[in-house]
Design a protein that fits this description.
about 280 residues, alpha/beta, 60s Ribosomal Protein L30, Chain: A, Alpha/beta knot, 2 domains, about 30% helix
């Protein structure tokens, strides 16, 4: 039982649940579903913290918790002081995500989604969740024009991913040019998601259904405001755009949200992969 807000464990949970991963890469995972996702993914867990009311979840958690993981309990008030949500469920763990590497991602890659300068952690988490749901074999984060991509393991991104960030292999590519070259060497086609009016590149411009998604492919999604840098588009094997209905008002929809665009492209990739196995009645 922890009764002081200055307790070292509470300080560690407070930092982790605010998004501070520290040098050891430990993340704070809060909420019963995300805690179950972390334990179900067999991630290394440093400690479990429950509040007085959150202790009601222990019957679901303890059967899958390693015996050597300390179980800490505190008051609802103290837990609320370390939690990163407005209405905490009273349960959290400190876990260490598995970081993917080039060596264990590219040889198995069938479908990747690359987030280049996607700053909104909600978008990042949603893209990772969609990627897992539609059969992607991994996700990649990289910077674009000096703009980094939000941490997929930050509290908001974790919640938006509904636990997918803890299961789907996620690779951090510090150098996009080197990574794009590695994709080519691995015979993985790179498709840059662009607006239809982008015409400065010389690569083909295709609609989602015109691409053969049954071969290994990677989808490149850019920054919410500025999109993809020209050199990223030029490095792609082709550009892909999502047609929209004609505007019904003087001011129509300018473009789709980054996560929504990724969802449409990932769904089309899954649809094609399964189409040959499905037979209409």
């Amino acid at each position: 039982m922890i009764a002081s807000r200055e307790n070292r464990w509470l300080k560690r949970f407070r930092a982790a649940l605010s998004g501070d991963r520290g040098d050891d890469g430990i993340v704070g995972v809060e909420g019963v579903r995300l805690v179950e996702a972390a334990l179900g993914s067999r991630l290394p867990v440093e400690a479990l913290l429950v509040s007085d009311s959150g202790a009601s979840h222990l019957s679901r958690i303890l059967p899958v918790l390693a015996a050597d993981v300390p179980v800490l309990q505190t008051s609802d008030k103290l837990f609320a002081g370390v939690a990163g949500t407005r209405a905490p469920q009273g349960i959290a763990v400190l876990a260490k995500p598995r970081l993917a590497t080039i060596e264990n991602v590219l040889p198995r890659a069938k479908l990747l989604v690359i987030m280049a300068g996607v700053q909104d952690p909600g978008n990042v988490g949603t893209i990772v969740r969609t990627a897992e749901a539609f059969g992607a074999t991994g996700a990649v984060t990289c910077p674009a024009d000096g703009i980094g991509t939000a941490d997929p393991f930050s509290p908001k991104a974790l919640r938006a991913s509904a636990g997918s960030s803890l299961r789907l292999p996620i690779l951090s590519a510090a150098s996009s040019s080197i990574f794009f070259a590695q994709l080519g060497a691995s015979k993985i086609k790179l498709y840059a998601a662009v607006a239809a009016e982008v015409s400065t590149a010389t690569s083909p411009l295709w609609r989602p259904w015109e691409i053969d998604w049954k071969i290994p492919a990677a989808i490149l999604i850019g920054n919410e405001g500025s999109g993809l840098p020209f050199e990223y588009v030029r490095a792609a094997d082709a550009r892909v755009f999502i047609p929209q209905a004609a505007a019904t008002a003087p001011v129509g929809v300018e473009s789709l949200n980054a996560a929504m665009a990724a969802t449409i492209l990932l769904y089309e990739a899954m649809r094609q992969k399964h189409a040959s196995r499905e037979r209409r009645p």
